C-alpha cells in the first residue's frame, strides 16, 4: 500500500495548481505514514532496525533550488559498504529532483561532490570535487540537459576549498591555500619532517577570476591557473558577492587556528576594483554566515549576542553603507540556524530552533516581528535555498521517521520530494516524544524520549541516556539514530533511549544557554539525574538498569556518570570525552573558546576546583563499568584524556576498557570505525543492562566471521548479476 501511494505521488497528473499539487502530495504522504504506522502496530515484523542497516543509512547533505524553481540539485551522502569497499568517509553523490519528486542521477558512484551552486540561467550546476585522476580539488560544471561533468577551474598545485559565482556569471571568487613548494615533498622524503607547532599553518587566500558567461562549455582556459591572491590581512574563511557584482562580503580571521575562527572572525565589504576594505562589521564572539539583501542595502549576519554567548543563533541586520549592526530579533528565545534573502521581496526567510522543534519564518528590515511560514511539528529544517522568483524554496529536513531529505515549500504548502532509504518504510519504528520537567532548583529541562519498539504500559525498561556535546547544542525531535546515537536501533532491542537537553543547551535563548557556565559538571549534570529520576518515577525506566553515553562534552557527562554520579548508572560509554579539566585546557585547539563561553575562568585561578570537576578525581569511588573510545587524531579533546581516564580507573582496579581509532578525529568519519563503534556501544550496554554480567564482554568483535559472510554474499550476488545479464 505504501509503495503504491508513493507511485501515485510520482505519476499523478500535475495539471493542478501549484498549491493543489503540493497539497495532494502532502496528503498522500501523510496518508501513507498513517497506514505505515497502522501496519507496524497490527502485525509482527521480523525485520528490525539493526547495526548493519544503520551502516547503510543515506541522507541529504545539501539542497539547492534552480533559479526557475523547477528543479532541486542535491547531494546525497552514501555510506561505503562495510567489509566490501575500501574504508573511508561516505561518498557524496549529485542528483536532480523535479517538483513531481522524480529523481535523476547526475554524478554518482565513488565520488565526493561538495558545494553545489546553479549558474544564473539555470543551465549549469557547479560543484567542487576531485574527479578521475585529479590531484587537487577543482571546480566542475555539468549541464542540466545532459552530458558529462567537465572541469571548469583548477588552481595549480592546490585545492579549491570554497567558491561563489556572481549574479551574471562573469566572475568566480575562490578560496584556497597557496601551493607548497615542490621541494617540501622532497625534503620530507629525505627525513626533514620537523614540525613547528601551530606556526606552520597556512592562511587561506582569496582569488577572483573573470569568466565568459556565454561559454556553456568547460572553461578550458581556466585550468591549472596561478592567479594572484588578494592582499587581505589574515586568513579568509568565506566570501559572497554583492548583488551588483561590484563588492564582496569577505570573512577573515587573524590566523587559520580553529580558535581564531570561532572567536575572532570578522565580516568586511571589499571593493572588487580596488581590493580594499570599505566596511567592517563590528560584532562580538562567534560569527557565522552573512548575505547581502537583493537590493544590496542590507547584510544579514548570524552571530552571537556577546563574547560569552556559547553558540551562533542571533540574527543581525547591518546597513551596507554605514556598517551599523543591529540585533534583528532581540530577546528571541530560540536559535536561528540558517537564512536566505528573498530575491524579489525585501524580506528574509530564516530557520530557527525552538526547544526540540524548528520553524521557518520571514522578517522584513525595520521590524523585529516575524511571520511563521512552517510551524513547529512539521519537520526539523536545517537548510534553505530560494528560487529567483521566490515562489519555490528547497529545504533540507528530517523527522522522527527519516534522516534529512529534500522538501519543497511554495507559499505555506510543503511536500517531501526524496526518499533516500526505501527500506525504512518497511521497518517498524518506535514512538518518540519531547518531555519537559522542572529540575530540583526549578529550572525547566527536558529532552526527547524514544520508547521501546514493543512498549507495554506498566513495564519498566533498561534506559540508555545519550547526552549531546557542546554543551552549546541541543537535541531536536527529529531523526536521532546514528552510529554513536542509539535511537531506533536500541528501541528495536527494547531499550528506552533518552536524549536530555540539560541547562546550557541551545534552542531556548542566550540566557538559558549560559546557565552552565563557570560550573563544569555542576547543576548541568545534576539535571541528568533529575531527568533519569523522572523516567523512573513515572514507571518507565528500571532504576538499576540505566546506562549513559555521549561524545565530547557528552563524553565528559558519561565519565562523570561513571565516577562522581556512579550510583545512578550501571554502565557508561565515554566517547572523545574529557577526563581532566586541567590538562584538557593545555591540550585542546580551542582554549580561548573554552575560557570565554564555557569555563569563564582559567585553571591557574582555581586549580583545586578544576581538579574536582574532573572525572579522574572521582575514579576511586566508581562502581560503573566504563568503556572509553577515542579517535587518535582528535585535535579538540586530545586522545590523552581517554588514556588518563583509563589509567586512573585501571590503577584503582575498576572495570574499564579503552579503544582507540587510528586516523579518526573528534568523532568517527569512516565506515569501519563507525560500525565498530556502534557494535561496541550496544554490546557494552547489553552486557551490563540486559544480561547483568559482572565481567566485561570479549574485546574481540566478529569482524573475521562477518568478512567471510559478506565476501561470500558479494561473490554470489556478482554471479547472479552476471547470469541475469
Secondary-structure topology with pairs:
Layout: H1 2-11, H2 18-42, H3 51-54, E1 59-65, E2 71-78, E3 91-98, E4 103-107, E5 114-118, E6 124-129, E7 138-143, E8 150-153, E9 160-165, E10 171-177, H4 182-189, E11 204-210, E12 235-241, E13 247-253, H5 258-263, E14 266-271, E15 277-281, E16 287-292, E17 298-303, E18 314-319, E19 325-327, E20 335-341, E21 348-354, E22 357-363, E23 370-374, E24 380-386, E25 393-399, E26 402-410, E27 413-416, E28 432-438, E29 444-450, E30 461-467, H6 487-491, E31 496-501, H7 510-513, H8 523-537, E32 541-551, H9 553-562, E33 571-575, H10 581-587, H11 591-599, H12 607-612, E34 626-631, H13 640-651, E35 656-661, H14 671-690, H15 703-724
Parallel strand pairs: 30-31, 30-32, 32-33, 33-34, 34-35
Antiparallel strand pairs: 1-2, 2-3, 3-4, 5-6, 6-7, 7-8, 9-10, 10-11, 12-13, 13-14, 14-15, 16-17, 17-18, 18-19, 20-21, 21-22, 22-23, 24-25, 25-26, 26-27, 28-29, 29-31
Helix pairs in contact: 1-2
Describe the structure.
Helix 1 (2-11) packs antiparallel against helix 2. This protein has a domain at 433-700: Rossmann fold (3-Layer(aba) Sandwich), CATH 3.40.50. 22% of the residues lie in helices and 31% in strands. With 725 residues, the chain is an alpha+beta fold. It is globular. The strands form eight sheets. An eight-stranded mixed β-sheet has the order 28-29-31-30-32-33-34-35, sandwiched between helices.
